[in-house]
Amino acid sequence: MAPEITAATPADLPAVLELIDASGLPRAGLDNHVATTLVARESSRIVGTAALELYGGSALLRSVAVAAAVRGQGLGQRLTTAALELASRHGVRTVYLLTETAGEFFPKLGFTMIERSAVDPAVQVSQEFTTACPASALVMAKQI
Ligand SMILES: CC(C)(COP(=O)(O)OP(=O)(O)OC[C@H]1O[C@@H](n2cnc3c(N)ncnc32)[C@H](O)[C@@H]1OP(=O)(O)O)[C@@H](O)C(=O)NCCC(=O)NCCS
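Above: query sequence and coenzyme A SMILES. Below: predicted holo structure tokens.
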């Protein structure tokens, strides 16, 4: 059965962080955004995650990760789409992301590359932007 995507609970945080670590992504600050984190469960195991940091009309999509054993089956795409729907429900108009490793994944979902300086200043001060992701990361955005 396809993994079910639901909102994360605080009890999910350790498993989410484990998946983030295993996927080579920064975990800094994620604990402040559990309320807008999604998880994908297969049986009761967390096999995918995606998180949003909300900044008014803008959001930062981060921590999109799928367990290595279930990659390539569309789960990353489903998680990203679910995160975009969640952002839309929060009144977000522009979703940004930083990535070093998935520069060809997100354009399939309508994200386009932008300059770092074009990012909403409210997002630029986030921990992910200022410390967690290196300056060499690609910056992408999607209007929703
Ligand atoms: C990126 C990631 C979330 C994709 O998850 P996934 O479940 O394997 O992705 P999907 O099966 O939904 O793939 C959708 C499409 O993207 C492609 N794709 C998947 N990962 C990709 C990557 N890293 N780079 C380029 N393309 C990728 C797939 O081939 C597929 O293409 P298709 O529709 O033309 O067949 C997963 O590889 C991962 O956890 N990577 C490590 C963490 C990471 O880099 N996260 C992104 C930064 S926040």
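The domain at 4-143 is CATH 3.40.630.30 (Aminopeptidase).
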